[in-house]
Amino acid sequence: MGFGYFRVWLVEGPVSGGGANGGRFPFDPVIRFKALILQAQHNLADVQMEFIIQDLLSWLRFLLL
Questions:
Q1: Percent over 70 (pLDDT), the chain
Q2: Which of 20, 29, 41, 51 is the most buried (most CB within 10 A)?
């Protein structure tokens, strides 16, 4: 059982943005969930999280980016 198990709950969860069309395509909800887990485990701010995701290959592989 992988993280895809959570996809049903993540997709059916509350929708942000008010249903407005336009803008970029959203990231996969499973990738966002996995990134939030890493961010909480390492107590990182959003800016730090963005830098580390771009810097560490192990995190890129875990997030499947």
A1: 85
A2: 29
